[in-house]
Design goal:
0% strand; mainly alpha; 131 residues
């Protein structure tokens, strides 16, 4: 159906969610790569790095893991792609005339609910005592 017009707001959200998911995925991979690489460097090259170098590279490892945990990047990535996929399916059905405007808006609302808002895991920011 070439005469189907997707509401611009919904189409923009669909595009924005894909972009946000890709950015979150990049951040997750970048922080993960930094965490693993810097952890291995601290474990293997402690002597070569010296005290200051070991502290710096160790701090990079700790910060990278903390950013992933505090901002719940894995969860947010799943939420973004899940919401995008839900809306993507609804848009395909809408374009084929299998759902109407009301159903599209309902699916959009479900996708928006799934995506939610950015969350910070405050437990990961608070030092925990070890018993």
């Amino acid at each position: 159906m070439s005469d189907v017009i997707i509401p611009p707001r919904i189409l923009k959200c669909h595009q924005d969610w894909a972009r946000s998911a890709k950015q979150t995925q990049f951040a997750l991979l970048a922080f993960g790569f930094c965490a693993v690489t810097s952890s291995v460097c601290v474990a293997v090259f402690t002597e070569e790095l010296g005290i200051l170098g070991t502290r710096i590279v160790g701090a990079i490892a700790a910060l990278s893991v903390s950013y992933i945990s505090a901002f719940q990047l894995q969860k947010k990535l799943g939420d973004l792609w899940g919401g995008w996929k839900l809306l993507n399916t609804a848009l395909a059905l809408y374009e084929q005339g299998k759902i109407d405007d009301s159903q599209l808006i309902s699916e959009y609302a479900r996708a928006e609910q799934l995506i939610g808002v950015p969350e910070v895991n405050t437990d990961s920011l608070t030092p925990q005592s070890i018993n």
